[in-house]
Amino acid sequence: MEKVGILIEGGAMRSVFAAGVLDFFLEKGIEIPNVLAVSAGAYAAMNYVSGQKGRAVDAVIKPLEKEKYMGPGIFLRKGTFFDMDFLFEDVPKKLSPFDFETFKNSAKRFIVNTTDCRTGQSVFHEEFESEEQFWKICRAANSLPFISRISRINNIPMLDGGMADALPVAKALEEGWDKLLVILTRKSDYRKKYRHLYMMMIRLLYHRYPEFVKTVARRARKYNHCLNELAQMERDGKAMIFRPSRLAVNNNESNVDVLMDYYHHGYEEASGREKEIWSFLAT
Asked: Measuring CA to CA, which residue among 19, 28, 25 is closest to residue 47?
């Protein structure tokens, strides 16, 4: 089992689908030693590593009943579409405490990536000196262009890890993981498209970081290539892919009922394949 890993796609609020899958894993004692998460996928993955089943619901979905922590109003007040202070300080320390000690001492490896604005390359983080540093890195890993400020890790300007490597298959293979459980948060027919207006805005706002601009320009092609690579790995019996089949939600979905349905959809997708999961891990 030491060469088995979980790869978790990001997608802001779509990450609750991944949380449903991972909560099923926790419930059934499906212990995978390596966890590689991108962007908001980290918010689901960290609870799997700390063993806090259901925490994603308490930390991401339920707060929306009282606190609309995203939207134009937040952007006007704080300069970010999502209230990062609320998500990465108030929630894990007060509203839904994160068990950092259990996380830190877990036998599972937790890897999350950010994008270095200077080089346009993906930077993978696994060692966290303190809980403060952990949340700082997770915040950077979720800092999307335009709607978030650039974060600094060791004085290096960083943005969302999905900009450089939304599906870091190469990293998983480099680690020597022979089998991958992959949690995608979009339906099977999704392919990323090059958006001309988006790229015009990227070039305008991030002109100081030309390598980052080049990386974003290649992003759709790289993402679709990784999807094809994962599909081949699935055919070869080296990957098992979980993705939504009956429901799709937007990155900024804020309806509690819709998000709960999406979370349960993730749980159901994993539950319906329990025998297949155990067989995949055993062979």
From this structure: 19
Q: Would you call 107 helix, strand, or coil by DSSP?
A: coil
Q: Using one digit for the tens of pLDDT, what is the confidence trace for 13-31?
A: 999 999 999 999 999 999 9
As a whole number, the mean pLDDT across the chain is: 96
What does the pLDDT look like over 148-185, one tens digit per residue? Answer: 999 999 999 999 999 999 999 999 999 999 999 999 99
Residue 71: closest CA among 63, 60, 80, 62: 80
* 117 touches 157 (CB < 8 A): yes
What DSSP character marks residue 82? B
Total Cβ atoms within 10 A of residue 58 = 15
b/e per residue 34-49 (b: at least 16 CB within 10 A): bbbbbbbbbbbbbbbb
pLDDT in tens, 249-261: 999 999 999 999 9
Burial of 15 (0-12, 13-18, 19+ CB in 10 A): buried
